[in-house]
Amino acid sequence: MKTQFLTAILLFTLFSCEKPDNSTEPTTPSGEMYFPSNTSNNWETTSPASLGWNEAAVKPLKDFLEEKNSKSFMILVNGRIVMEEYFNRHTSKTSWAWNSAGKTLVAATTGIAQQEGLLNINDIASKYLGTGWTVEPLEKENLITSRHLLTMTSGLDDEKQLVTKANLTYVADAGKRWAYGNVFQKLMDVIATASKQNFETYFKNKLSDKIGMDGSWNMGLIFKIYHSDTRSMARFGLLALNEGKWKDEQILNETYWKESTSSSQSLNPSYGYLWWLNGKSNFMVPSSQTVYPGMLIPNAPSDLYAAMGAEDQRIYVIPSKNMVVVRMGDAADKANPSFAVSGFDRSLWEKINAVIK
Description:
The structure is a single chain. 27% of the residues lie in helices and 18% in strands. The chain is α+β, with helices and mostly antiparallel strands. The chain is globular, with a radius of gyration of 20 Å. Residues 1-22 and 25-29 have low confidence and may be disordered.
């Protein structure tokens, strides 16, 4: 990925970057975890200086984000906003597509349905989808559990994006091959059947409303994509940082959350339940069976886990730093809009590290 650094003059910055609205509440630095209100957009802030960060590196980070086609960027520490920036006519109220970063929302909703006793991820998917939801022989279809859908190990063909019965063809036995694809969408149908309501309603009632998210699903023919403003994305990141807990409510049990953000299988240890994991010995990427040695993002904290979507939609969660980082926007490299081998992530973390170290 090409890396070019522009030095933005002050006048350009003033007219191209929208400052956050006034719905922030300055506060003194604190190690206590903070959660914003579910019913207002007020959100406590803290300054980079109060955290001992390198303030001289903040502007180069902002310049890099703008150059790389970002629309918004946030850093939370202990739940408080340290940085919140908007670029290129994007505003704090603008809705934007999460792309595949929204898979983590499906993973969390699946966990909630399981803890309510509506489903068990270790049951075969046919229990909820009915037999014949694929064109595999029945004995092969009956190997596929909801857990295989969560871990990208269904063994179904990953080359066809449209999830129709005709496209769900056999490549390998479930659990024997890791391949990133859209078949995870069948989890939405599992949840709908198990809860006896459509997925969007269940998701809204059990997850998004509980943490004050403001967004909607676009159930397109090929892609099922969530759209929201940046702060809603940050709210979900904060829920993740707190392992499924929001204020005094354990929305999703801690055991399932730890499973979600741990290696879910040995084929690609850098993948959990639709979450990407740093700090592992090797990783795979979409549309490839290549195994790459080393960490997903070598210069990022090893305990980082992430929601990652096409065109570089990101939620990074870093437990060791009580930190959440959100990036929304167009592809950093428009010639390579899909998942790259950590190219953008490495460049971004180089800039973040200069600020926080």
